[in-house]
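User: I'm preparing a small set of examples for a lab meeting where we compare how different chains pack in three dimensions. I only have the primary sequence for this one, and I'd like the structure in token form so I can line it up with the others. Please keep the answer compact; I'll paste it straight into my notes.
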Amino acid sequence: MTIDRRNLIKGAAFAAAVTAVAPAWAQDDPLRVAMGDIASVESLNLLIAMERAEERGVPMELTYFNSEDVAVQAVLSGEADIGVGAPYAFIQNSDAPIRMFYRMSTLLFFPVVNSEVYSGWEDLDGQEVTVHSRGSGTEALMRLMEKVHDIEYSNISYVPGSEVRAGAMLQGTVNASIVDAANFRLLKEQGGEKFMRLPIEGVNATDEALYANTQVLEERADDIQVFVEELLRTWQDIDEDPSIVGELREQYGLLPDLPDEAASEAVPYYTEAVENGVYPTDGGEPADAKDDIAFLSAAGQVEGDPEQVDASRYWDFGPLEAAKSAN
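Assistant: Understood. Below is the structure token output for the 327-residue chain.
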């Protein structure tokens, strides 16, 4: 599997991205996956599934972009075939020809503050908070809490990478952010009572999904099906035994540049994630779209009644159904 790291400058013409025609594919062309994030232990399950798809004859290529909105533009323009994210708002606002086809994870994030500065949600009124990226689940969750607690942030800063935001909190340059379970544990281990988790309730929504241009889903259906089969197998294997992540990371030589401290967190991270149901083993279903729209509309990112949502506007469950039928 090829991994490419790029730091693309945001601002490619949106109209050009939407209207660009995807190229014709040769049989040995890789499925190019665009991720608007940095390499981390959270990526390991996806990387393992990609390696397994390659073993079955589907070449894969992963490119790291500097934000999710740049990644989605890469998918629209044909520079990438598959994106990582949950682009409901993007699809609704642009009617872009992209559809999600595999639900990778559900939201389990930890809004956290420096307790020496803030003691609750109400203290964040008029203050700055830091999230992953524009349009991300971290932003939606923080926007929702803004409404729930009748507060208004002075600014939202975008800093990709949960470990990067945790590091900024440890350094004292950020006092209010949102991180994943592994990095909340890191904050507690290194900062003790200095870092406090703020409460959230009643949130059930997709954190990340895989999506593709509808032309890719149609013309590369066989390759997509193999990939989805390996995603399902990998998610199930991890659900049954999270320690397999460490074994497969070594077997495939994944993320060799990870610091030892971060690498040692891989198995504990997936163990905790499995316990909390972060990685669903069914790949998603139409009912999830309703939950997502309910969450995102409450957060002010999309419009519409979740009970009236047409899941096919956002999802194509064909690859998932085909993969399940093949097993």
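A couple of notes for your slides: The chain has a mean pLDDT of 89. The radius of gyration is 19 Å.

User: Perfect, thanks.
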